[in-house]
Design the sequence.
């Protein structure tokens, strides 16, 4: 499954770091944190997708406390 | 278009203005009253510092707990605290102040660009007026969301409404503005039987439309999906910057650490003066450690380039395709539907002992019951009234033509072999194209009346399109066609193509494109997207034109032209070249300025102020520069 979530990404470099952090999880097949689109796109297998999204939300908070991924 | 700031942005702007005024006032006080003791000054400058920097400090603190030591907010906090420690109070405030100015500017610039692209793409229909037949057989209009409308439903579209779904007009005349999709501002008149495209605007009349597909497969849904996803396909330049940014910050921070510690070890480990000098220089490094200018300006340039192109009816599926297109040197065209209209038209009439008008009259009458494209072109060329009562029996002779009884006489209309069959004294024509011969057979005697030359019409814009491509540096323009050699040669000559290949089977087209690519040419293939999906996929860049209403084209191409005007190809190339130019300018400029500041900082020539201005200034200039991609002039 592949889905996009809105996120208030503050700057381009923050987006890049968030993307790199989420990609570190081996369950994540594809991740793109897009500053311009203000979107985070995540692809993972259906059975782990919800967990991956939860992980991503945590990840975003950790990398940039000012940013929130809206699910 | 005026951009309205969000609440968050307005709040930040207020903080910036208050801090800036306090900073100016306090700095003047500091200069005039130089005898103020430093603890008083420190408290004074801490006021604006807290106003502007409380969130930065908070985030920095949280990041320490999370072990995120290379966050730019953390680094800015360190730089400012370091500045306080070395007694540079105004600088300490300025570092955070300008950091915030840069962030605000970035957020406004991106918000603005997004908004203008969104406005271009303001084609999403909100509702459809569905006709529902009630139990009493009464037809009622119901407002529903476009997603709920089934195929084959009848919807009503009123003047001023967006057409919500693709379909065919069943009732009512109107004119439609397609500018949101094609950039073409001239309205198109529509009558029952015409195809309407979702996302266009109904201007004048009320009309009923039978939908030909569901919303998710409509033109408008596909276009929106394409544009929204275009930023997922990243260009090499962008990947380069991402990789660069990954290493840039750690390297600069380590360099700053070394700069702060190593020289004092040799120059005087106990000398406070030496320490403060080198720590001050190291702080300059920290200030320029954020790669934001680079990281934002590259994707922003691509995004505005793609946005600017979509305003022209050129949809680009990703930054990577824009990048590839900018390197193109060869453009290969499919002939039919791309350079030619794909519909036949009468080129010339060569009568034999009768008038042109009479010859056309007979041919048109004989063909008047046929729907073959060539027959249609002859009928269209006949502008007067066609009195079908004059036509008696019409017999089709497969592969050769027709025999029709007109005014009681037998007429044969068709190709050379048909003329041979009836024994007419026909001759070849010196013109190329499809030749329709006409013979009259009366009283066992056949008489040759002449011939009509029909050709696939070259689009009026084709010659200009090829000329424009030459101007933007495309060295080779090639046409591929399944048509006969002579026809290909004539078309190629008329519009001044550098090359053509005729009599190709569909599979041959793929081979030809492969051959060109094997020779190292960066090859663009332009087709109408109907039969040439394999070629579109083979070429470095596939451009499908006339995509209004053709789903296949949107699927298989990398770049989609909404209308079928070949002039847009050169425009797309120009947009791509300009965008790449701006991307390169931004990369070189931001790297260059940061590099110079680092060198000057290490040598002690650049102070904190220069570093702050350098950092934020570069960011702002790079953003402003990337917004230029949005404006593409028609000049070459």
Sequence:
């Amino acid at each position: 499954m592949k889905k996009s979530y809105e996120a208030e990404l503050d700057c381009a470099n923050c987006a890049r770091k968030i993307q790199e952090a989420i990609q570190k999880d081996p369950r994540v097949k594809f991740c793109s944190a897009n500053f311009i689109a203000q979107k985070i796109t995540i692809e993972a297998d259906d059975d782990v997708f919800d967990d991956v999204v939860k992980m991503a939300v945590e990840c975003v908070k950790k990398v940039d406390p000012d940013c929130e991924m809206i699910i | 278009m005026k951009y309205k700031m969000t609440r968050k942005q307005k709040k930040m702007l207020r903080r910036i203005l208050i801090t800036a005024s306090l900073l100016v006032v306090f700095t003047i006080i500091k200069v005039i009253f130089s005898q103020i003791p430093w603890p008083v000054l420190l408290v004074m400058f801490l006021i604006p510092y807290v106003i502007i920097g409380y969130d930065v400090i908070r985030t920095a603190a949280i990041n320490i707990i999370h072990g995120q030591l290379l966050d730019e907010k953390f680094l800015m906090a360190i730089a400012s605290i370091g500045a306080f420690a070395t007694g540079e109070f105004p600088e300490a405030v300025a570092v955070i102040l300008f950091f915030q100015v840069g962030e605000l500017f970035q957020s406004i610039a991106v918000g603005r660009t997004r908004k203008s692209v969104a406005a271009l793409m303001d084609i999403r229909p909100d509702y459809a007026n569905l006709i529902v037949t009630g139990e009493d057989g009464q037809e009622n209009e119901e407002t529903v969301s476009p997603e709920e409308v089934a195929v084959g439903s009848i919807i009503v579209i009123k003047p001023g409404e967006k057409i919500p779904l693709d379909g065919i007009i069943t009732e009512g005349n109107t004119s439609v503005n397609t500018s949101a999709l094609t950039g073409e501002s001239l309205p198109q008149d529509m009558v029952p039987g015409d195809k309407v495209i979702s996302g266009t605007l109904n201007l004048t009349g009320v009309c009923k439309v039978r939908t030909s597909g569901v919303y998710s497969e409509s033109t408008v849904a596909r276009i929106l999906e394409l544009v929204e996803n275009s930023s997922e396909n990243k260009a090499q330049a962008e990947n380069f910057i991402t990789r660069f940014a990954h290493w840039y910050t750690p390297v600069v921070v380590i360099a700053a650490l070394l700069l702060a510690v190593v020289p004092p070890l040799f120059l005087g480990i106990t000398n406070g003066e030496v320490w403060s000098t080198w720590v001050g220089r190291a702080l300059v490094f920290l200030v320029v450690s954020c790669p934001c200018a680079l990281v934002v300006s590259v994707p922003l340039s691509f995004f505005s380039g793609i946005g600017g192109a979509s305003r022209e009816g050129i949809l680009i599926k990703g930054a990577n395709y824009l990048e590839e297109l900018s390197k193109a040197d060869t453009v290969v065209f499919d002939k039919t539907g791309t350079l030619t209209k794909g519909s036949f038209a009468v080129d010339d009439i060569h009568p034999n002992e009768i008038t042109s008008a009479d010859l056309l009259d007979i041919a048109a009458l004989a063909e008047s019951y046929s729907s073959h494209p060539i027959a249609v072109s002859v009928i269209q060329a006949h502008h007067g009234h066609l009195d079908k009562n004059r036509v008696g029996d019409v017999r089709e002779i497969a592969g050769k033509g027709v025999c029709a009884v007109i005014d009681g006489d037998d007429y044969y209309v068709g190709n050379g072999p048909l003329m041979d069959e009836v024994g007419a004294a026909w001759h070849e024509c010196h013109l190329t194209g499809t030749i329709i011969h006409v013979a009259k057979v009366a009283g066992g005697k056949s008489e040759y009346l002449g011939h009509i030359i029909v050709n696939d019409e070259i689009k009026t814009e084709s010659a200009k399109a090829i000329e424009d491509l030459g101007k933007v540096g495309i060295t080779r323009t090639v046409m591929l066609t399944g048509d006969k050699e002579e026809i290909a040669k004539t078309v190629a000559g008329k519009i001044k193509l550098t090359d053509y290949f005729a009599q190709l089977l569909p599979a041959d087209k793929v081979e030809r494109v492969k051959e060109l690519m094997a020779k190292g040419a960066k090859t663009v293939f332009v087709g109408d997207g109907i039969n040439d999906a394999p070629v579109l996929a083979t070429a470095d860049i596939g451009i499908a034109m006339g995509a209004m209403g053709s789903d296949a084209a949107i699927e298989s191409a990398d770049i989609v032209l909404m209308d079928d005007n070949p002039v847009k190809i050169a425009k797309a190339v120009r947009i791509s070249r300009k965008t790449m130019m701006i991307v390169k300018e931004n990369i070189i400029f931001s790297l260059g300025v940061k590099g110079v500041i680092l060198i000057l900082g290490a040598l002690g020539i650049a102070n904190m102020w220069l570093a702050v201005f350098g950092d934020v200034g570069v960011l702002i200039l790079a953003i402003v520069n990337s917004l230029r991609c949005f404006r593409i002039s028609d000049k070459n």
Q: What stands out?
A: The longest helix of chain B spans residues 567-602.
